[in-house]
Design goal:
The protein is of the alpha/beta class. The chain contains eleven helices and eight strands. An eight-stranded mixed sheet has the order 1-2-4-3-5-6-7-8, sandwiched between helices. Helix 1 (about 35-45) crosses helix 11 (about 250-260), helix 2 crosses helix 3 (about 95-105) and helix 5 packs across helix 7 (about 165-175). The longest helix has 17 residues, at about 125-145. It binds D-malate (MLT).
């Protein structure tokens, strides 16, 4: 089922499906809720999936000069309220969705009971990365989205996915091309200004699952394993043969890691 929730002047588009504990799936950049389609097919029998398009992406409106990660977290909190979801959710975010996840934990703690961080970073951008983000924002505003797939796909997917899974390459490329430049530019500026959350990690007081693709070129396994090491109750799962887009590249393995995360710990004897 698809819903449109009006929050102030903005319309938020969200897919809701399945039955079970609520699991909020928050997409990466520059994508929309469809990046979760294959994983959602596998998890809908176990969870109530809440799969929004973030501000300025997919069919959600809300264009601003800058979409701060903290603003996106506020949006999600208001969206849950608009959907009358009162129980605490598991927040699962990939990459930019993970940046929003840190903010959701920090500022909306009572709405969250578990955290799944996929292929994301805790550190802020370097000056060089910020510069590239601002240049990319200018480029998409001036020229549209057409140059992004060629630039980004080699960093987002493992070489073996690109070679053997043309349908994943196609789905990812089409998803990028249909995003609107204003929303993309606003998110680029928001990501450029996001804080270094490394000092927060030791205080994260929830069960956490950190998932990383074996060949993730953007948030590599060493960096993500270090994030998991710094969070008191974190498990780390590496997904073989995948790059940055683990749920699109190996949805079955990601679904299995998520199910295991929810299994009750074995009783000590
Ligand atoms: C994403 O997948 O959301 C992006 O890689 C995030 C980023 O550009 O830092």
């Amino acid at each position: 089922m698809f819903k449109t929730v009006t929050l102030g002047e903005d319309e938020f588009h969200v897919e809701i499906r399945g039955e079970g504990p609520p699991l909020l799936l928050v997409h990466g950049f520059p994508l929309d809720h469809h990046m979760w389609d294959d994983l959602a097919n596998l998890l809908a029998s176990d969870f109530r999936l809440i799969i929004p398009d973030l501000r300025g992406f997919g069919q959600t409106t809300g264009f601003r000069e800058e979409s701060a990660m903290s603003q996106m977290a506020v949006d999600l909190e208001r969206l849950l309220e608009g959907l009358e979801i009162r129980e605490a959710v598991t927040f699962c975010g990939l990459s930019m969705g993970g940046y929003v996840g840190w903010q959701f934990w920090k500022n909306h703690r009572s709405h969250i009971e578990r955290l799944i961080l996929m292929d994301t970073k805790a550190v802020a951008d370097s000056d060089e990365q910020k510069k590239v983000r601002h240049e990319t924002a200018q480029m998409v505003l001036a020229e549209g989205m057409h140059a992004l797939p060629e630039k980004m796909i080699p960093k987002l997917l493992a070489e073996q996915t690109i070679a053997a899974r043309p349908e994943v390459v196609k789905a990812l490329s089409e998803m990028m091309l249909r995003q609107r430049p204003q929303g993309v530019a606003a998110a680029l500026r928001g990501m450029a200004h996001r804080p270094d959350v490394t000092p927060w990690l030791a205080d994260i007081d929830l069960p956490v699952l950190v998932i990383c693709g074996e060949h993730d070129a953007i948030s590599p396994p060493e960096e993500m394993a270090e994030i998991a090491n710094n969070i008191p109750a974190a498990n780390y799962a590496e997904i073989p043969g995948t790059g940055h887009m683990t749920p699109m590249e190996a949805p079955d393995l990601v679904a299995q890691a998520i199910r295991e995360f929810f299994e009750p710990a074995e009783e000590e004897v």
